[in-house]
Amino acid sequence: MTKLKKIPINRWIDLGVLLFLLVFPLFTQTFRVEMMGRFIAYVIFAISLDLLWGYTGLMSLGHAVLFGMGGYMIALCYSMQGGVPAFMTREGINAIPSFLVPLQTPAVAVIAGLLLPVVFAFILGNFLFRSKVSGVFFSIITLALAQIFKDFIINQQKFTNGFNGLQGVPRFPIDGIPLSKIHYYYIILLVAVLVYLFCLWLTKSRFGKVAVSIRENEARLGFLGYKPANFKIVIYMISGFIAGLAGILYTPMTNGITPEDVSVVASTAVLVWLAVGGRGNLTGAIVGTLCVNWAQSLLSESFADYWQLILGIILLAIVFFIPNGLVGKVIEKQHNFRINRKRVKITAFNRSMKGAEV
Amino acid sequence: MGALLEIKDLGVDFGGFRAVDSVNMKIGDGEIRVIIGPNGAGKTTFMDMVTGKTRPTKGTIFFNGHNITGKEPGEIAGKYKIGRKFQGPNIFENMSVYQNIEIALKGYTSIWHTLTYKPNTRKRERIKAILKKIKLYDMKDFMSSELSHGQRQWLEIGMVMAQSPKLIILDEPTAGMTADETHQTGEMVKELAGEHTIIVTEHDMDFVRQVANRVTVLHQGKLLAEGLLEEVEKNPEVIQVYLKED
Amino acid sequence: MSVFMQQFANGVNLAALLLIAALGLVIIFGLMNVINMAHGELIMIGAYATYFANTVLDLPFWVAMIIAFLVSAAVGILIEVIIIKRLYSKPTETLLATFALSIIFVQLVQLIFSPENKYVAMPIKGILKVGTVSIPNYNLFIIAVALSILAMTGVLLLKTKFGKKMRAVTQNRQMVECLGIATSKVDTWTFAYGAGLAGLAGAVIAPINSVSPTMGGAYLTDSFMTVVVGGVQSIIGTALGSGIVGESRTILAGFSNEVFAKILVFLIIIVIIRFKPEGLFARERR
User: Which domains does chain B have, with CATH numbers?
Assistant: First the structure.
């Protein structure tokens, strides 16, 4: 029983959310299941940023780029299933280019969608983390990256269909029949649970403690014999993998992907979800993502024009009043409660000892 | 007892300002050497060069026969096993006392090792032994942010011990401590010697008296005097520059 | 060759624009060490102030420029007092808060002025022809403005009492406070000056393309890139950095297209940061 007491409260929240998500399709309409499925893919995306930012302190303002790499790979794959797609023939390409041919196989596209962000993170990480630049520069570079990547996608319209993005991405058809929305929902949920468990293991391990220590006191780690740059690169790669995975799952659920999904706005959104929910505990990523996205869905029907403004104000308020996010606040309350309980016990113990002395 | 650390003509020039100038030093295996000198004498800069934080502009540093001049701090700490405790307590406030020692354990600092690390009895016993030596065993599950200043200094000494270094450098370990804590720290340091070689920079003369084998006096970047504390205390130059100003 | 010459001439223009935009940033980021993610929006606000003064109220362009400077400076004071001051020494929070502000500003402007592009008429028309190279007269004006602002900032920092206070606070805040100077006020006015410069940039940029609520974003990253290349604490470095970034981007764009030019320059900047993180022209740090 004492072991159960030691479990931090946010793990109970995680369990509660999981149970809710498991039964969700049983009492809601299909189109809401579809939305929730999308949001769970977003949760995976948010968890990837939590590893990078929440735990390790590296604030990426362009994380949607890694998400989009995964999404575009799978979208490109299905665009080429019926031969050369229209956006290529429009630009005078009449046969699928050789470097894209392997992508016609979904399995290859999935692997590409997972590896591309990893390789990218490896290269960028080697440049940024090995030099002695501060965290601010990482944020600025990733911001520039987000702007450039979106421009690049739009510019390369002969491969990406530019502004309109790639549509008509089915839910991983087997023998030509796409998975049902409900089945796909549960697949996304399963993957999310696996990702969650992996990240839980990772963050609780020595590796995870090193990550947090990089955020808190990187210089000290160097003197203990660690090489923080290597850790940052590996964390960025893992984060990239999970972000790419999120993109791959997301795209068939929304039927497609557009340059908006890799833009600065998309990268900002995930930052807001984490800020609202709380960083560095995984639960915040889950709660923040689901709450903000559902609020957005329900409110933007009535407040369409004002939604971004409201988001900005919420973010500002969070920074000032609840800097650790909603879950962070809950964890803080539990921690204070436990400390006070300990104090009461120690005081009582001391009093009893004093009584014994006299 | 050969010289573990041999420093020849070491110096560093910061745009015209010679923080350390032509210092020669030999420190034997198992010795406790205390470096004293007024503020600005170059003690910390000297340590910075031995641990790799600052690159010397002249001279050499030989450790255990290896030339470590100008190498990176991570390499000096990991490969050559020189552990350093900084002036201010520099601990990980996000972790408990126990975890601070655990993360400092030598041999588990590569990415592979951090992923495959499994706490076992041997490791636990090692950590507990260190915690007992630094008198923080009872506080082991407290967050390190809850420790007093003196306790944080001890925690840091513990972290340095966990690195199993050959040479331990202590930068003003008793700064901010009460007289009682200072004395306890002195006992800790004496216990460490023999198995480890220790260099301490200090201002507190009682502490110096308690622990020192030999004493080196730095002044304005140069070596002013060296020898047993009693000899150095009687050196007229030292008295004029340092002890009298105290 | 003539393509190169034309692109070079155009590049000077972009360099001058980058300089004006980045100068405000180097004051705030370089001197005060404050990360202001709303810098692009301060430029945008200056552009809208110019639109309002010049197109709507029909005031002369040079009056609109002054108004743009003042409006952005005023917004800067508000930002500094209400937000930056409270989050001093918390860089993550400052970044997030100013990021939130940038979203809020864009949305507010969109609500007040509508999301459509607005236009400011070109105040100086005509083209100068030098050999095969054509230079719009307005470009010369921009270059003149850039150089004047550079000179003005230099005079402010080096010759005025306030400038001395600014530099002192950068170097040793505690000492300045011990001398009885209210560093808090110095911070506010420094930020205001940086913000005002951003507004001025907006005014100058307004006639070139159009004025839209989202125009600021690109200038934010461009300004940071320029400052990073030149050296974060160096004003001369920023000037030279803007020259390098502006020229390379324009010349490369002349030979390929704009997007590839941006990508290439971005890659070059990353390589520069890797090997010289303090910037190309910064004084060597310990």
Answer: 3-245 (3.40.50.300)
